Amino acid sequence: MKKIINDPATVVAEALHGLAVAHPERLRVTTDPAVIVRTDAPVAGKVAVISGGGSGHEPLHGGFVGSGMLDAACPGAVFTSPTPDQVQAAVTATDAGAGALLLVKNYTGDVLNFETAAELAEATGTPVRSVLIDDDVAVADSTFTAGRRGVGGTLLLEKIVGAAAERGTDLDGCARLAASVVAGVRSMGVALTAPTVPHVGEPSFTLGADEMEIGIGIHGEPGRARVPLEDADRLVARLVDAIVSDLPFVAGDRVILFTNSMGGTPLLELYLAHGIAERLLAERGIEVARRLVGPYVTSLEMQGMSLTLLRADDQLLDLWDAPVCTPALRWGM
Amino acid sequence: MKKIINDPATVVAEALHGLAVAHPERLRVTTDPAVIVRTDAPVAGKVAVISGGGSGHEPLHGGFVGSGMLDAACPGAVFTSPTPDQVQAAVTATDAGAGALLLVKNYTGDVLNFETAAELAEATGTPVRSVLIDDDVAVADSTFTAGRRGVGGTLLLEKIVGAAAERGTDLDGCARLAASVVAGVRSMGVALTAPTVPHVGEPSFTLGADEMEIGIGIHGEPGRARVPLEDADRLVARLVDAIVSDLPFVAGDRVILFTNSMGGTPLLELYLAHGIAERLLAERGIEVARRLVGPYVTSLEMQGMSLTLLRADDQLLDLWDAPVCTPALRWGM
Prior knowledge:
Domain DhaK (chains A, B): 7-331
GO molecular function (chains A, B): ATP binding; glycerone kinase activity
Organism (chains A, B): Tamaricihabitans halophyticus
Keywords (chains A, B): ATP-binding, Kinase, Nucleotide-binding, Transferase
Helix content of chain A: 25-40%
Radius of gyration of chain A: 19 Å
CATH superfamily of the largest domain in chain A: Dihydroxyacetone kinase, domain 1
Pfam family, one (chains A, B): Dak1
Low-confidence stretches of chain A: none
Oligomer: homodimer
């Protein structure tokens, strides 16, 4: 295992320390339990927007803590759900009296632990609403999931709901908005190589030298098919076809297109793939109104990519454009 | 070779197309010769700041084209110098009468081709100044280089000089500023794995399963030593020691610390390493006044990292903080 670490047991804690010293003006990190909190939380009168999940997907979620996006993120062990006490501590640290919205990727452990935390927080008087994100069209059920998995769409959800909360939208309004984003967002990914979890020490799965996994999960869960390597045109067409036909997206739709690297795929290849995706969408009459390209929802050093499409009206585009100031996403301020 | 591409011969052109469609509000891409130009160039009265180099180091340089940083970038083939006609076309596209400053990484091919382009541009009446960046302390001479290589410090140079040019600093002032940045910046990197150049089809070098290359170049050029894998504390101490003792940086210095992923090293590990670097610098009495952490000066999918330190006075920090709006670096607007 080739990694820049000291001890698999302390990787997440040490990385969180590094995140904290790198971004002291935007976030602070508490330990025991581990929570990443924006420096100015709780923000008076504002709904607290909270997410979290296993570590190893950075910058998701900790890199999105800051003004205009998340109030707090709960980092679990690598590829492991955060515990209820982490989520409860996040609510306590950010509760400004307007309640908390939990954005939960659909994995069984996450769902259970966020649910437990929501009950604990409600019992202490904080109104809590939860929204599940399950944007991965690849498979109906998966290794760690009943129903569809939550993947790249999570970033779009966090940005848009974060912007609404920053503008003063109340808890019910934020929850409704989140549900509308979830209803209109779809993703699918592909892996060329497997990631290695530090405390496991060997690759999460085995792929032949000329194979790729279509519909991969962000923890290396199996996708739709293991197929021979193919060129970028065909590969991107596979992803676009699966995503577009699922919602379905239709001619005349305006979308936000998010072309995501799983970590190990370099920008040179990612931009190449992005150009193909834009062409294929234009051919279908789907208008790409905004785009994001980069490694944002990753799976450690896994080579691969995903595409995410969100059908977006003027309101969603306006919230997407709103100022954001986080370690990984920043504009307008 | 596992890559998301169509044909090794068209990778760069296709990636540039993707870059252009992803960022239409910030840059445009010309072909034949290939140049990435900020949309509003030439900017009246402004010195044109131009850089370039082989592709495969993205987001360097094309991702730094935009307001407050580069006016144009010249992307060569993968790991190959841009041609003189690319650089000349970049000067022509951005010349607003105030002259052009060429920021050149110290590789023999780049130096020659930028020099030829500078002569051609001067012959047509555009004043041109060139500044060499050679911040890599690892080795005195290298595979493609007489003298030291230009690596991560290039980003800091482009940001700071770009900010000065945006504020109206004249050509001589920009050149003096660039020279002062080059005088105060030092870097060193390490590789855990080798990158694969698309048109070569196999890894650029061979590293054993338990080996790493200390002082690696961004094209996989040999460094100081090939050593057994070691933990992050020792590895980061090696880099910090080499960099600090070179300038040398001393107690009381204020610095910008740039912790860079070579591409394949995930943020989890990079933040871990960054935290160690900050601690080691604090122990030496060196104040980290600003920091940047991420994959910015990469070597395709190579796993590894580099550290860059720039001694920074109030003027340099102010220029670092100045607004920038590029695909890969954005703040204050």
